[in-house]
Write a structure and sequence with these properties.
The protein is mostly helical. It is built from 28 helices and 3 strands. The chain is flat and about 120 Å long.
Length: 527
């Protein structure tokens, strides 16, 4: 730095000041060549360099482009100003500014030169980063770790009925707002139960640790809590629902349906801050008028209740409301098909909570749910089936489902080839009840089960089929004769004992042992 200061003093000599443009030009050339350090005041109009944050890799492409554009703009501005100084200071002292004017021109030229050098260095640095990013080999994220809906690494992976894995938040939104199909396979889901995929989650955690990435944070809904204006709106809509004007009721119901679908936080507002709001909604369904003369009003109100049932905090509050279950059960058989479907979806949502299963099972809901399975469209059957499956995981509800006529309805659907995997899973639950077994035998369902076991169908379907046959033979040993005949013809149990799931293998092997015990030295491979 001392050398530079001496150089400035030398070029401030009166002799040098009279040299004019050539002196200034030589000065600028010398500064470029000697890599002189520019004093701090040279950059007084420059913003401080960006402070680096936690390293996450090279600049994003958009950020890099912005830096290049800004740098080019400053460089052009500085070059223009430098040209003006050289052009204006090259005619000696004609301007009348005297020696001081030339000194000021030199100082300004030095300052601008420093700024230009800063731009060049910054551009080179960014180019280096860009080049590094172009030639670096980024770590490829395994596609199994990416949610097909969010296209992000999953933090809470869950499995749907088709076996596909998604991030819980995004698949739940899909099911709530779109339809009951698998986004990837487009198949209608036999149920909407989301099963945690612990294996994928553990693999993601290990992969992140191995490659030095932060573990993905659990996805959360970014919707804000309702603002004061939203609260006022919700209050006014609840008042309209209780209005004597049908048009006001319909308008309010439609808006409540829309809000509770699009703003998840509004679902909590209703039952947490306005516990009586559910009764206000459902009270409109007490009379026959909304159902018979205003099916749209009923549809919007039932769909609003479905939206309210989604948060875990609301499920028990809805079931405990004395109006809710009777009105939902009534809507399973009265109203538009969408009303019936959304009522079934509400029962499916509410029945995921264990404490609610007995309450719903003790109501009149099972009969209309089974009727909806029998006569509803594909989505309605799907939602009703999911609700019945959830309810029948409780022992007390199995008898009620059988008495409600579940077995003949489900066996007919299976014979017709409709949603076989869904219905056979419910029958597998019911097969622990003696009356269900007796009805299946009476309906000649054994041959259908053998057919499912022989076909190259889903392993889980075969598992449920052999489990049902096992339960039938446990309760009615005379059916072992039909099992033996099937085994002699097709080696059905032997094949499952080799190729089935672990549970299917256990059931098949146990049945084979029963056949041997009942026939002495029975060999399934000899007719």
């Amino acid at each position: 730095m001392a050398y530079s200061e001496g150089f400035f003093r030398h070029w401030s000599d009166p002799f040098c000041l009279r040299v004019g443009v050539s002196s200034v030009s030589f000065l600028l050339l010398w500064l470029f060549v000697t890599d002189i350090e520019v004093p701090p005041n040279v950059r007084e109009d420059e913003s401080p360099p960006n402070q680096s944050t936690r390293r996450t890799g090279v600049l994003e492409e958009s950020e890099h482009l912005q830096v290049v554009v800004e740098t080019d703009g400053r460089r052009n501005s500085y070059a223009h100003r430098l040209s003006a100084i050289l052009g204006g200071g090259g005619e000696g002292d004609d301007s009348g500014a005297g020696d001081g004017g030339v000194v000021e021109a030199i100082d300004e030229a030095i300052r601008i030169l420093g700024c230009l050098r800063e731009c060049e260095l910054k551009t080179e640095s960014e180019a280096s980063c860009s080049s590094a990013s172009s030639y670096s080999s980024p770590v490829d994220v395994p596609k199994e770790f990416i949610c097909p809906l969010s296209m992000k690494i999953m933090s809470d992976p869950v499995v749907v009925a088709t076996g596909q894995t998604y991030e819980r938040l995004y698949i739940q939104k899909w099911l709530n707002e779109c339809d009951r199909t698998c986004p990837k396979t487009k198949e209608v889901l036999s149920h909407t139960i989301l099963t945690p995929n612990h294996l994928v989650r553990d693999l993601i955690s290990k992969w992140c640790l191995d490659y030095g990435f932060d573990l993905p944070k659990p996805a959360s809904d970014t919707d804000e809590a309702p603002r004061e204006l939203d609260r006022d709106l919700l209050e006014s809509l609840l008042q309209k629902i209780s209005s004597s004007s049908v048009s006001d009721q319909k308008e309010a119901a439609k808006e409540l349906r829309r809000l509770t679908k699009r703003i998840p936080s509004s679902r909590l507002f209703f039952l947490r801050e306005r516990p009586d709001s559910l009764s206000q909604l459902l009270s409109q369904l007490h009379s026959n008028d909304p159902i018979n003369s205003n099916p749209e009003l009923q549809e919007d109100l039932i769909t609003t209740v479905f939206n309210l049932s989604i948060p875990e905090e609301n499920k028990s509050l809805i079931v405990e409301n004395p109006i809710a279950i009777p009105m939902l059960a009534r809507s399973l058989t009265h109203g538009t098909m969408e009303t019936r479907r959304n009522a079934a979806a509400t029962f499916s949502s509410l029945s995921t909570t264990d404490s609610n299963k007995l309450i719903i099972g003790s109501s009149e809901a099972l009969i209309p749910l089974i009727i909806l399975i029998e006569e509803g469209d594909s989505l309605a059957m799907n939602d009703a089936g999911a609700a019945v499956f959830n309810l029948c995981t409780v022992l007390e509800n199995k008898k009620k489902a059988v008495q409600a006529g579940a077995v003949p309805v489900l066996t007919k659907k299976i014979k017709d080839g409709v949603f076989v995997d869904a219905w056979i899973s419910i029958l597998a639950l019911l097969s622990s009840h003696r009356q269900a077994v007796e009805e299946m035998v009476r309906l000649g369902f054994m041959s259908d089960l053998f057919g499912i076991m022989r076909k190259p169908s889903c392993p889980l379907m075969k598992e449920n089929a052999v489990a049902i046959i096992f339960s039938i033979c446990e309760k009615d040993r005379s059916q072992l004769k039909a099992v033996r005949e099937e085994e002699n013809r097709n080696d059905t149990l032997t094949n499952i004992a080799v190729q089935g799931t672990d549970r299917a293998k256990r059931k098949a092997n146990t049945l084979l042992q029963k056949l041997k015990r009942t026939a002495g030295s029975y060999d399934p491979h000899t007719a």
